[in-house]
Design goal:
The structure is a homodimer. Chain A has helices spanning about 25-50, 60-70, 75-80, 90-105, 110, 115, 125-130, 150-155, 175-190, 225-245, 285-290, 295-315, 320-345, 380-400, 420-440; strands at about 130-140, 160-165, 195-205, 250-260, 265-270, 280-285, 355-360, 375, 405-415, 450-455, 465-470. By secondary structure, chain A is of the alpha/beta class. Chain A folds into 3 domains: about 25-100, Carboxysome Shell Carbonic Anhydrase, N-terminal helical domain (Four Helix Bundle (Hemerythrin (Met), subunit A), Up-down Bundle), CATH 1.20.120.1310; about 120-345, no CATH class; about 355-470, 60s Ribosomal Protein L30, Chain: A (2-Layer Sandwich). In chain A, strand 4 and strand 5 (about 265-270) form a beta hairpin. In chain A, helix 1 runs antiparallel to helix 2 (about 60-70). The radius of gyration of chain A is 23 Å and the shape is globular. Chain A starts with about 20 loop residues before the first helix and ends in an 8-residue tail after the last strand. The relative contact order of chain A is 0.13. Chains A, B: Keywords: Bacterial microcompartment, Carbon dioxide fixation, Carboxysome, Lyase, Metal-binding, Zinc. Chains A, B: Pfam families: CsoSCA_C, CsoSCA_cat, CsoSCA_N. Chains A, B: One of its GO terms (molecular function) is metal ion binding.
């Protein structure tokens, strides 16, 4: 039995074409998504082909030719020269191919994302107009949420105002957030800007089709537990800053939920004192249903009215700017709901995990897509181990059970304007890799963890620059 | 052959009594130092006595009586009930006694430090008068530098303006310092204060008696290397902040050296652009010699003139406030030079290491004395392991070689105004302890690491509150 789509009757007479949906943007995003999926699918397809090649004298050359033509990368020559006894290390080649696909996607992002990046509903200018200098967003580390910015929220992932920090169960680190808050607030004052605020958003998730199995693993697939934990963490952060720095300085907070089957969001408006509430306020799927068939202005007004009513219902102190941002998030999400209706038959075929690799460290701004990777934000494994544990557990089922390796990109950002920052980011990559290797020794088969260590320059040009791969037969690529 | 004292001819006719020396303060500090030394010596003495007691039925009661009377602490009852076969675990009792002495010293600090704390030459008011809101001080982690604040510099260790972060070789963490800088600069702006600045001081060290063996281990006991490395780190921090936040915002920097045999300092004035210079500028021992016999005003003027000449010599851009602070540091150090002359025969008997335990994490403001402990500032072992390695290496020679354990206090501060902060500080203690245990497994004999996990409240009353001891037979004391 297929569950009905709560936004639109897919078998009904009315077409699922909402007046507020940006169809051109959806088209561009779909083209991008399909292209990326194909690129990553190709890694496996091409390597399967290589695995079937005769292992005679021409093998290495043929393999390189295939890799070059279809994956746009070189394969490590040493791996292709595997002995007849041990055979060729296909797991190493697979990880190498994935890392190459990532780097290629990031390098080509300016061109490949051009069609949709400028069309994002929410960008720096709009965020500023709503009264915010920073949107600090914590989704769950779960791969199904790694497309939230460009797809679900239609927020430009490269926005200066946006900080993306994923944690298992959306349980962000209070101290790291306070450091970010401090840095951003100081920057505002140094630049003589006043009046804009810091907004912290926590995004929990659930599955409407399989609520007890495909929800958030960190909260035992319990939707209420996931919601309540995220609200509690928001409250801790806000209260902490208010008590440490001053009552008027507490950041605004916004609690959101996502049904990962549909990419439909729900919004919990903050309460009378700005505190996070777990009360359900606005569901985007319901908004879609209610406003389908309306003209643009009427639908927009309905959304604004719905938010006002919800705000009144919880006596919310949400500012005009926050309500405007919420309205824009809801409108943007109508596009994503219709995107899933049009391009994924109303409900993702793959409800559960389908990540291809793990990313730990800082976010890859230029590569964000549902189920492409599991992302654990951390500075050290010592502090972030719980999130990596969840990721490794997912990959035990996804990959190790099939004899596939666990590819891990360790990625840290640095600011090249700070002397020695790149070297320290590289050291951090190495430390975290050593930590991961040591932590899962005995749990993950010897050699099954494959690492790509990468750094990006926050104040310069380097993007996902490869420091080195480890376990893929490639050393010190650049 | 005993090296001559460079400040004063100890065999000469002129008494070593300098007009600028605060003799009452010296007396109070010496009383405190002697009391602390006796308290920590007593731990060993009393436990040796207990070890010699007959192990009959009355043993436990007698041991408790001794500990109570002379150490002011209880011993873990389980340890006193050791089997006749295994004997009593004296190493565990020793570590427990040391930890108890630390807690007692901190608890009694308000009373025991009353005689000298208010007399410190440099306190919050003076720091503010010199134009600084923060003195961020990094000495080496070496135990011989753990008395620098109250003794060598005569800076009140409890000053709000002072941050103390020790690292092996004085090689402080640029990113941690930038975070502290950001937090302090924001606080200034939130409080509407302007015009005061952040001063970073790096303190390297050397030994005039045994330059090639008792200098800084992290720099191969090479004085020039220690100095140059500290200068380079200061330059990185200053340049980093200038480039990331704005040229005018770079912190002031001050490079200092200490001869740990004499506690005599040297000052390297910053250069024309405020950059750290390695040029030698003013030596306190020489200043002592030159001004001995002068009246107060004349001596003070001589110091000021010496600083002005040195500043002119390197075209220093040091502000009036910085020069005033340097003058006060030099004057204060004259007292310490004379302190070592009067109470330690002009040169410490123990030139090398004599630490009794290792402290990792945040500083113990209320307990600072030369060679009492090795202190490695860190947030995670992952980032701070290099400093702990040096500490463990020192204790291999000091303690493990004699069959003594390695007592480690893991201490983190939290702000109780931030919800959940204490729980997170406790978790951090546990994580760091687990990390240390894992890192030195195989290198340090099983069970030889003894831990005391403690937390202090930066915004409330708890000071070195015991979370639990580990390896001392005591679990969950409070």
């Amino acid at each position: 039995m297929v569950l009905a789509n709560p936004a639109c009757d897919l078998n009904g007479r009315q077409p699922c074409e909402h007046a507020l949906v940006d169809r051109a943007l959806n088209q561009a995003l779909h083209g991008y998504e399909a292209m990326l999926q194909a690129r990553f699918d190709d890694v496996e397809a091409v390597l399967r082909g290589i695995a079937e090649l005769p292992r005679g004298e021409g093998f290495a050359a043929q393999a390189q030719e295939l890799a070059h033509a279809r994956l746009g990368c070189e394969l490590p020559e040493a791996l292709l020269q595997g002995s007849w006894m041990a055979g060729v290390d296909m797991a190493a080649l697979y990880a190498h191919g994935l890392f190459a696909a990532c780097r290629r996607s990031v390098a080509q992002a300016p061109r490949e994302q051009a069609d949709w990046l400028a069309g994002m509903a929410i960008d720096d200018a709009f965020i500023g107009d709503c009264g915010y200098h920073t949107l600090d967003i914590t989704p769950c580390a779960d791969g199904r949420l790694q497309g939230v910015l460009p797809f679900v929220f239609r927020i430009a992932p490269t926005s200066e105002a946006v900080l993306l920090k994923a944690y298992a169960g959306a349980l962000f680190d209070i101290e790291i957030d306070m450091t970010d808050w401090t840095q951003r607030e100081l920057m505002q004052r140094l630049n003589g800007r006043q009046g804009t605020r810091y907004l912290k958003m926590a995004v929990y998730h659930y599955s409407s089709s399989a609520p007890s199995s495909e929800g958030c693993a960190a909260h035992g697939s319990n939707e209420d537990a996931a919601r309540d934990a995220a609200a509690a963490r928001l409250n801790q952060l806000r209260t902490g800053i208010m008590q440490a720095f001053g009552v008027g300085l507490g950041p605004d907070v916004l609690l959101l939920g996502i049904d990962t089957d549909l990419d439909a969001i729900r919004v919990h408006l903050p309460g009378a004192q700005g505190e996070p509430l777990t009360t359900l306020t606005v569901e985007a799927a319901q908004v879609y249903r209610e406003t389908l068939g309306m003209a643009v202005e009427q639908a927009s007004k309905h959304i604004a009215d719905t938010i006002e009513q919800a705000a009144a219902g919880v006596r919310s102190s949400a500012s005009v700017g926050l309500k405007r941002l919420i309205a824009r998030l809801l409108e943007a999400n109508l596009s994503q709901i219709e995107y899933v209706i049009q391009h994924h038959e109303g409900r993702y075929e793959r409800l559960g995990h389908g990540e291809r690799f793990i990313c730990v460290g800082d976010p890859i701004d230029e590569l964000q897509m549902r189920n492409l990777y599991y992302f654990a934000h951390l500075d050290t494994l010592e502090e972030g181990a719980a999130c990596v544990d969840v990721g490794v557990h997912i990959f035990e089922k996804l990959n190790l059970s099939r004899g596939y390796p666990v590819p891990v990109i360790v990625h840290f950002s640095y600011a090249s304007v700070i002397p020695g920052a790149r070297e320290r980011a590289v050291e951090r990559c190495e430390r975290v890799m050593r930590g991961i290797t040591a932590r899962y020794r005995g749990q993950v088969p010897e050699g099954a963890l494959k690492f790509g260590l990468c750094v990006s320059d926050a104040t310069g040009d380097e993007r996902l620059g490869l420091v080195r791969e480890c376990g893929t037969g490639t050393q010190a690529v650049n």
